[in-house]
Amino acid sequence: MFRPTPGRLVYLLIGLVVGLAALFVYSSVAGFPSFLPFVRPSTTSTIKAPTEFSGTSLSRALLANQTVTKNAVVLRVNTVEEYADGFSLTYSLLSGQPGDAAPVLQPDRFDVTDDKGGIYHLSAPESSGTVGAGLSTGYLTFTPALSADARAITVSVPHLVTVAGIAGASTSKILDGPWEVQVPLR
């Protein structure tokens, strides 16, 4: 049988401290494990509005094809897809004049509102974009779901950021907008 020597007691205490520290870190991140006797399951549940887009239930898809031009830059909203917990849209950003080297532009943000005053928030984890000389495209997702009473949404880009341009050219790093596109929903 093992005898409690001072060395074994030190290792036992170190293991106990490391285990408690690991349990503290785990419970801070993911909550207490259910096998612990002092953890009681919650009897009340709260329903929260989704804060991130899941895209699990497509209601309908609309071909938007709405454009606006300002400062020789065209913003086009291509499609809008309605889901149970939000909506997505695809966009294209065209810049540059024929025969000239086009700058690489990127929208600084998208603001989306509906005609009933609803405000929609970008859900970044499910959104993506590609920037290139003269053409930038993207897929953006927003929450909450579109209002059933809304007849149109307004997509606004306040500013465009010049990511890359012509070497030595004295171009502005920020193009002021706004570029506003109204997309009919019904």
Structure description:
This protein has 186 residues and is mainly beta. Helix content is 13%, strand content 45%. It contains 1 helix and 10 strands. Strands 1, 2, 3, 4, 5, 6, 7, 8, 9 and 10 form a 10-stranded antiparallel β-sheet that branches.
Give a short account of the largest sheet: 10 strands, antiparallel
Helix count, DSSP H or I runs of 4 or more residues: 1
Low-confidence blocks of residues = 43-50
Order of helices and strands: HEEEEEEEEEE
| Cα gyration radius (Å) | 26 Å
Rough outline: elongated
Please identify the structural class as seen in this structure: mainly beta
Please give a quick description of this structure.
The chain is built from 1 helix and 10 strands; from the N terminus they run H-E-E-E-E-E-E-E-E-E-E. It has one helix at 6-30, and strands at 58-70, 73-83, 86-95, 104-107, 111-114, 119-122, 128-132, 135-143, 152-164, 174-184.
Task: Throw out a few tags for this protein.
186 residues; mainly beta; ten-stranded antiparallel sheet; 10 strands; elongated
List the helices and strands and how they pair.
Elements lengths: L5 H25 L27 E13 L2 E11 L2 E10 L8 E4 L3 E4 L4 E4 L5 E5 L2 E9 L8 E13 L9 E11 L2
Antiparallel strand pairs: 1-2, 2-3, 3-8, 4-9, 5-6, 5-9, 6-8, 7-8, 9-10
